[in-house]
Every structure is written in structure tokens, then in C-alpha cells.
Amino acid sequence: MFIGIAGTITVAGPSPDGNSLLFKAHNAGNWKKLAGYPVAWDRHGPALLRLEGIGLLEINFGGLHQPLKYGKEALDFLLSRLGIRGNLFGPSHAREGVAGFIAARKAAKGGRPVAFVFRGEVLPDGQEVLMDPVLLKKSVNYQLLEAGLAFPVYYEDLLPGLREELTRACRAARDQELGFWPLDRTNQGVVLDGLQDLTKRYVIFPKLFRRLGRYLQGNADLRGFQEYLAARADPVLHLPTGRATSLAALVEVEGNSVRLTAAPEDLVFAEK
To answer: How far is the C-alpha of 197 from the C-alpha of 59, rounded, in Å?
Structure first.
């Protein structure tokens, strides 16, 4: 069961992204009801959330970004749905401390609550809640997938029924060519002659983008990229085959071309 927690939602920094959503619980004692790691917060401040089941295009990952048009659209959509602000990626008209709720079961490494996020008052504060499809579809997590502005990113603790609902939203958005999906090259592959191609030309699965970005900051080509991946623990379950494997085994490199050989919604990653 999930725990419903009431509070206020805001964002961190002058140029936030989807990974800078902050939540201040009205009753900080509710954080102790979550499994996993202790929630990182202080007496006067909020906790940094991790959005359950989705990944947004990176706007600022160690100074790197994915094509900004869709990263900014996703952020604008997220903040508009939450009532934090209504304009596209700018500090004007921002509102701090908007009322909202989260539904969470645990906090991940680093003390970040892993949450479905809702605007307004939709859940009983501090109580167990059943996350059914009706409630799921009210979350901004689901709505971002539905709009084609987020990739599915699944970890092993996400309940299978919720994962299936999120996958349906993802595939419907892809079939209708919504959001970034017409430009997605995750499975078709991209040809990279350097970091600029990665950051400005192509939309790909954010987890793969982060690995490529780190690698290309110190390497001129992709010759060692699979070895680089294999040296990092990225265990993953491939749902169609039921095979436990690794991200490295699902990435194909030919010359300066790289692609993910499995659909993102078919992967369930292990928590580190």
C-alpha cells in the first residue's frame, strides 16, 4: 500500500528540471511511514522527490542537456498541471508552496521519496491508499506519459499492475506520435560524432543519454562504450523474455552508431 502525504510543492533553483521537484509535508512524521532509506529533509525544509515510473528529458545533467525543446515542454506541462506556474520555462509568475499530495511507498538511496504526485487534496493525509488505475491517471506522472513528454522508467518495486497502466499510456502516446515520440531514436539508433550530436540532435532514453554523456566527456568515439557500460552495475529484467541481464547487454554499438535493442517500457531496473 502507498502512504498519502499532504503538503506543498515547489521547485529548486532558478532553472529547475523534472528532478528538482520539492515537497514539504504538513506532518513530517509521515516520512517515517515510508520504507527504504530515511527521507532527507530538515526541520525547515522540503524533501526532493523522485517521480515514480517516469523519466523526463535531461535539462541539466552535470552541464549536459538533451534537446531543450521537449525538456522545457515537459517541465512546463508538469509545473502547469501542479499549478506552480503557467508560463514556459521562466521565473516569472512562479508560485511557491502550491498545495498538493504525494503517494509513496519508500524513499530511494539519497533519501528521495519515490512518489506519484497530485495537485490539490485528493488523498487522506498519513493514511494507506490503494493506487488503482483511476487514481493513477490523476497523477502528473501518468499525465506526462500520456502526453508523450516522459519515458517510462521502471524499477523493481513498482507494482506490475501500475507498470502495465503506465505502459499503455506510453504506447498510446507513441502510436499517436505525441510529444517527443516522432523524434525518438532510442531503438532506431543514433550516429554520434561528439557531445553536440547527443545534446542537440537526438531524443533518446534518458538513462542511456546519461551513460553516453559521461562517457563522451572523456572519449572521442564509441569504441570503448560497451566496456564502459559493462564496468558499471546496471542490472535489468527484460520483461518479454523474463531474462535477467544488464544494460550493457542491451546496447548495440557499431562504429559511432549506438542504440538500445529493447523498448524502454520492457525494462525493469534493479535499485542500487
So the answer is: 15
Q: Same domain, yes or no, for 171 and 195?
A: no
pTM exceeds cut of 0.85? yes
Asked whether residue 76 falls in the same domain as residue 170, the answer is: yes
Domain around 255? 184-269
201 shares a domain with 169: no
User: pLDDT tier at 122 (50, 70, 90 boundaries)?
Assistant: confident
Distance CA 224, CA 215 (A): 9
| Residue located via cell numbers 569504441 | 223
Given a contact cutoff of 8 angstroms between Cβ atoms, the answer to whether 147 and 179 are in contact is yes
